[in-house]
Amino acid sequence: MLIAAAGLALAAQAQPAGIDPEAQRLLKASTDFLASQKQFSVETRNTLEIVLKSGQKVEFNHQARMSVQRPNKLRADRTGDLVDQVFVYDGKSLTLYNPASKAYAQVPAPDTVEGMLDFARTRLDIVAPAGDLVYANAYDILMDGVTEGFVVGKAVIEGVRCDHLAFRAPHVDLQIWVQEGAQPVPRRMVITTRDLPNAPQFAVTMTKWNLKPTFGAKTFSFVPPAGGTKVEFLMR
Length: 236
Description:
Helix content is 19%, strand content 42%. By secondary structure, it is an alpha+beta fold. It has one domain: Lipoprotein localisation LolA/LolB/LppX (outer membrane lipoprotein receptor (LolB), chain A), CATH 2.50.20. The N terminus is likely disordered.
């Protein structure tokens, strides 16, 4: 086992300088494939590290199920350590609902998934799980500022063979695992923030991809519950 681990470490250290074209090709194939899907659903397991003032890292976990119908529908149901929320976008408005308290906030939103995600991030401080991958131009977003990139090698995520890719920008490291074959969906992504103390990480593992889901009439709609309380978003 020690010999195997040493071999893996040496392989990881042998990356070429600059950006390996093969790493770029594999990433673009994945993002282009996902952008071409008119609708899909995916379940995710997310891990967020928080660094305390003492320097100790604390980990928080949550799960999500995301449903997307292009060009203007998205829903994410999230549960876990820090969150129990439903995120619904119907092409006209964005709603955030907390089932435990029956509280919800709703605001008009842009008329595309990409416009809504930009609006949610910049005006509401809300980020959909693995939201960057939903954009039609996900490749450009992920490669923005990247100065180094290489193919780490083959890996298995949730029983699926993948190509493991690693990229580096001035302040962020990105790892992404892309499924082999004709459906190169991303299976895992790890973002390491190097310009914060102790380099906290966000990791998301994507499972149960469905590229031909059947969405019901209520999937992307929100009806306030009986006894629900409407609150206002804190806008930037």
